[in-house]
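Q: Structure for this?
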Amino acid sequence: MEYKEVIGRRRTIRFFQSWRPVEREKIQIMLEAARIASCAVNATFLKAIVVIRDDIPRETLDAIKTPVSGLNIELAPVHIYTFADMGAYKGAQARLKKLVDVGALNATHGWSHKFVDEFVWPNVLKPLAENANQPSVAAAAASDAGIAICQAMLAAVDEGLGVCLSAFQHEHMNKILKAPPEWIPLWVLLTGYPAESWEAGGQRPRPPLEEQFFEGQYGKPFKGDPKVTEQLKAAKMIQAPAPLPWRKEEIKALARMFGLPE
Amino acid sequence: MASIDKPIEEYAAVKTWFTGLRDQSGIDPHDDPSRVAFLKEFCATLEMDPDELVAACLLKKEGRETKISIKGRRSMAERIADFQAAGTDARERPKRGNTIRSFLIHNGILLQSGIQI
């Protein structure tokens, strides 16, 4: 699938084929996509634990459901529990020097081993590592983790899977996961084959470009070019908006198939 | 506690339910007579009218703010499960429970039941 179409086809899938396992290689593809994501100071903030839903004891599965995520958690055959590793700053000094060694960070931009050791580490990274509980530090780590999660999601879509980022009750699940205390729980990336059509009723409503993005300063909308919009429609990145005409009938059919309220 | 003392369609909660079925779910509330029959039976079992069923899931805080009561919702979910299990026909049971869940959901009461098959 072409890249723009992958972006265009991504939806939050809420009905999974609960009976159909996901091939292990497809999970690996998702994780590899996350692994090579952009990350500040080359720190791998995203950590994740893959769990097969049917390996989770029933009482734990029930306990981790939030009021609005219960059905999603139950239907998805694969759960990828994601975390922001606040300990990831700790190895950043060595990782930055590795980037110098491989030619990613160069003298052209002011980088050297000595600069890392004598300036970046003591003045920037060490204070961050020592104040990892500060909201701004945690937000930066979570942002990087989100970028990596997004790549995993898009890779899943490219593999024909459906994904849904969902909240979960961490304290119950961690009895199984045994995640280290410095890992901040983020989301569970629910993964499986969609039971609903991949369109899932159409592309979700979003505000127009001009409401969300600005040029030069806040209040000056970034104006899109209608020609570009047409190009993106042709590339299937911008798709038919929800609701597609048959969506209500699809939901009725799904509700009856799974025995859900209408 | 009150029993149903007027046509069930006249209760505000039933009107809300019917509107939700029509507008959100694309379902004619009258297409299946069992829908209202199950609600009446459930109301009789709990000795509540439809509006009271909804109120039982809510929590009035300081006389003004109304929030969803976790205890009330859990209790109601258990009663619905009992009502569902009381069905004599195995194929009818999920429909019994889901009818009541649908009624409460369209009245803003969060009730995710999971798969009922």
